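Thread: sanity check for a docking pose with zinc ion

Original post by kr_44:
Hi all, I'm comparing my docking run against an independent structure prediction. Below are the sequence and the ligand SMILES. Could someone generate the full complex and paste the structure tokens? I mainly care about where the ligand ends up relative to the chain.
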Amino acid sequence: MMEKVPRLLMNAVLVLCCFLPSLGHAEGRVYSLKDYKDGAAFLESIPLPGGRDSRARRDLTALFSAYPDHCAGIELSEENRLYVVMNKGRRLVYEDGKGKSFREKLEDPDLQDMLEQEYRPGPVEEDPPEDFDPGRIRVTAFFQAVYGETRDEVVGNCLETPFLGERVPFNVRGGARDALRKVDEELSALLRANPPLAKHVRPLGGSFSWRWIDGTRRLSPHAFAAALDLNPARGAYWRWGTGTDPGEARRRYPREIVRAFEKHGFIWGGKWYHYDLMHFEFRPELLFSHRISAEAPKPAPWAPRRQSRASNEQSRPGKETPGSWKIED
Ligand SMILES: [Zn+2]
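Reply from moderator J.T.:
Ran it for you. Here is the predicted complex with zinc ion included:
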């Protein structure tokens, strides 16, 4: 739902959100990815708090692997606080040291909060516990740095993209549009083989829309043209529904459709406690993070990921160099 917020007010809030995260830290040592032969050597050289098997290492591996053209380096401040330095110079704190409730993480997350809950690709077997919404906590400034700071910049980064007979604007940065084209190829073949699936897809609910998330003052992932809604009539949304868990609808949603998206770096809002069954969003860092964790001891199903002892950079995707993003079939 587009709220009638004057553009000026929206821009003022966004400018504040852009620059506040950069303030209030002392200059420290900066490690630039370009100075190393690959991402593994880069991370190896940084004395990360918690050492080589830390959650920080896993999270940073996921971010740098998923967005190699946009994450330029890491700054370790004099107080031993980590910042991710984006390629235009903006610094984003990895862990702000604040204890936060789930709601506070939604409102004011750091990068660690954004990657805390593990998104698991594959079939839905159980309903998520309360507030289990992997991917719904987003550091807006991170996505602004990747996809565009303002509406005009995002528009300039979009190209019309064929998708199942329609054309949708999608962001070329971060690999989002290329990924959507691959999903289109898979879904086109799927729908030819199984035409009744089309009712779950069409008419599309939309892709780009410069707006707040309904009921909030946080930019929607649709504002970055890196998310797509399929047929809203087949995809319940928690704010529009009764508020009760959609249970059966979630489990009966065609898993082939979800799989086609997940395979190319998208997450599905149907896996959230605050469900959004029509919603698919390009979040390769979450799928990377899952793969990196895949050989670590498994927490209980759906539980937020705990700090694990084994992030297995030696044998798992953490070993990949930036730019080698690929989801296994
Ligand atoms: Zn959506």
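The chain has a mean pLDDT of 82. Hope that helps with the comparison, let us know if your pose agrees.
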